[in-house]
Design goal:
Elements lengths: L1 H22 L3 H11 L3 E5 L3 H12 L3 E5 L3 H20 L5 H9 L1 E4 L10 E4 L5 H14 L5 E4 L6 H6 L7 E6 L8 E6 L5 H13 L3 E6 L6 H17 L5 H12 L5 H8 L1 H15 L8 H8 L15
Parallel strand pairs: 1-2, 1-4, 2-3, 4-5, 5-6, 7-8
Antiparallel strand pairs: 6-7
Helix pairs in contact: 2-8, 3-4, 9-11, 9-12
Bound molecules: nicotinamide-adenine-dinucleotide.
The site of nicotinamide-adenine-dinucleotide (NAD) has 25 residues, from helix 3 and helix 6.
Length: 318
Amino acid sequence: MLWRWSVEVRQAVSLSRDLTLRQANSLSYFKVMDSKLSIGTIGVVGAGTMGNGIAQVCARAGLKVILQDINDEFLQRAMAAVDKSLQRDVEKNRLDEQAKLAITGRIRTATDMKALGEADLIVEAVTENLSVKTGVFHQLDDLTRPEAILASNTSSISITKLGAATRRPEKVIGMHFMNPVPVMKLVEIIRGIATSDQTYDAVRGLTFKLEKTPLECNDMPGFVANRVLMPMINEAIFALYEGVATRESIDGIMKLGMNHPMGPLTLADFIGLDVCLAILNVLHDGFGDPKYRACPLLKRYVDAGWLGRKTGRGFYEY
Ligand SMILES: NC(=O)c1ccc[n+]([C@@H]2O[C@H](COP(=O)([O-])OP(=O)(O)OC[C@H]3O[C@@H](n4cnc5c(N)ncnc54)[C@H](O)[C@@H]3O)[C@@H](O)[C@H]2O)c1
């Protein structure tokens, strides 16, 4: 009870501080924050759907970015995605060509993780798998400066576990961007058991600099966003599996009836069916509650390599 109360009070204080920050949204204020944080270079590990979006928004905010992945082909694909996304803004007169070149010019790519050694803060955005992520955090701990903050974009994996893979758990935090990163305003900020207030404040300040809104939550499986979203997506897949309705009807009912901008099956394709399955498994294991068991149809699609938009086929064909 006391714990719940203190969380609520902390969140209320944090929200009012966030509002004050937004009201004080002047460049000079951010410069002060900047000099205090001295975050000038961001490392991004994993250049997939999320990693390239995170690199783009950081570079757009004037930060230097080192984008790292395991092979050059993935990095080239990521830079092409960044270019395409910025080009859309140029065509809509939201950006000029010169500014676009300056943004892409601030992103350096690397296959060698050692390149991340000069970063002030690293955002990990690799595959949603505990052993892959703990391996990455272990390496980052060895290769980066001891004062660097290590953030994870994980959708569901314990920040406390990732912190425990390092010698600096106080500097490990969840920074959960939403997809597509350049468009979505929320960053869910997750504190692990050992995350320090200093780390939290630094990451919150950075989130504002990226022109996004940070909302804080504690380290429980799926945090808030996916604890609420994934059971809905899973239920929509069960409805399809059981023949309750067609994919178009299920999505149409949720769009027209609930005012959702996108139906749950379309959204699952957009997120990636492998990512959805991984998150449901974390919820199922973490809570031990059968209500989170993934629909067999979702498992079958992932087995077939039908992962959604990124592979050209999921619940829909692209
Ligand atoms: N897809 C979404 O909608 C979404 C939304 C929010 C958060 N997330 C989270 O973001 C993370 C990344 O998801 P994604 O959708 O971008 O995945 P993705 O499959 O598109 O990209 C993952 C990238 O990580 C790279 N990678 C894997 N192991 C690596 C390693 N050891 N070192 C460097 N790079 C490595 C892969 O080569 C790949 O390019 C996951 O934790 C996911 O849960 C995803």
